[in-house]
Design goal:
PCI domain-containing protein; COPS7/eIF3m; 2 strands; mainly alpha; 10 helices; two-stranded antiparallel ribbon; 5% strand; single chain; PCI_dom
Length: 272
């Protein structure tokens, strides 16, 4: 449970105990005033459920409106209070608290957080009053927000879970959650489909790369074999040519050497 919510429940506990002895409509009405004026009391559902507070529903016109007032503090807004007739007049503390509770209910869309809209919804006359209300709510731990004075808006990032559920709101919440669940399932299905497609393309790319690598390796192997055979053939032919050249030269040398000696012998003989 959120700490702010636990703090609010603890603050309400004494008034729940006091409700057991509030046997008269006047005592029950006074208890409503005390509970809605006390510091840190921001949830009222448990107090509403007590028998003596519920008994105000059948009380006189003087005291019955206090039950309606407690309903508004539990799940209503400042507009609900101003639009409902015959309600008890609020003290300054009660006005501040009801405006703070209303501020928790308003951040449902960006358009509800402009200064102009908030001033209207909270019946505040000046920007300074609105900013003071927001700042007090932040320090009380009711919400996390920033004042954008340039854009004249309140940027709310989170609110404390301090509003009670209005009667009949559960089916609507269930419907909203079911719609959200349906959209989440649809998005997850699309993501899974995209992941499968990416994997399929990756496998195809890997297959092409493997085939390309095999083709390159095969081509390189064929080239190496061709160079080896060519080298062997070239070496044999060159060796044969060298043998022929050397034998030719040797033959010519032998023939030339024999003729030279033979001629020299004849000339010497002839001289004798």
């Amino acid at each position: 449970m959120d700490q702010t919510q636990q703090k609010a429940l603890n603050a309400l506990e004494p008034y729940i105990l006091l409700s057991k002895s509030a046997n008269s409509p006047r005592a029950a009405a006074d208890l409503v005033t005390q509970a809605t004026s006390a510091p840190n009391t921001f949830v009222f559902a448990e107090l509403l459920q007590t028998p003596n507070i519920q008994a105000l529903q059948t009380a006189s016109k003087e005291y019955a409106p206090y039950l309606t007032l407690l309903h508004i503090f539990a799940w209503g807004t400042w507009s609900d209070y101003t639009e409902t007739t015959n309600l008890p007049k609020l003290s300054n503390v009660q006005e501040q608290k009801l405006r703070q509770l209303t501020l928790l209910s308003l951040p449902t869309s960006p358009t509800t957080l402009t200064y102009a809209h908030l001033l209207s919804e909270l019946s505040l006359s000046t920007t300074r009053a609105l900013e003071d209300l927001v700042i007090s709510s932040i320090y009380a731990g009711l919400l996390t927000a920033k004042l954008d004075t340039l854009s004249q808006r309140v940027d709310v990032s989170s609110v404390a879970p301090l509003r009670d559920l209005r009667p009949g709101s559960v089916p609507r919440m269930v419907s909203v959650l079911e719609d959200w669940d349906t959209r989440c399932v649809s998005v997850l299905g699309e993501i899974e489909g995209q992941v499968r497609e990416i994997r399929r393309k990756a496998l195809q790319q890997r297959k092409r790369e493997t085939e390309h690598e095999k083709a390159v390796a095969k081509k390189m192997g064929e080239n190496e074999d061709g160079k080896g055979k060519l080298g062997k053939r070239g070496g044999g032919e060159e060796a044969d040519e060298m043998d022929i050249d050397e034998s030719g030269r040797k033959s010519r040398a032998k023939r030339g050497g024999g003729n030279f000696l033979g001629g020299l012998g004849r000339r010497l003989g002839g001289g004798n």
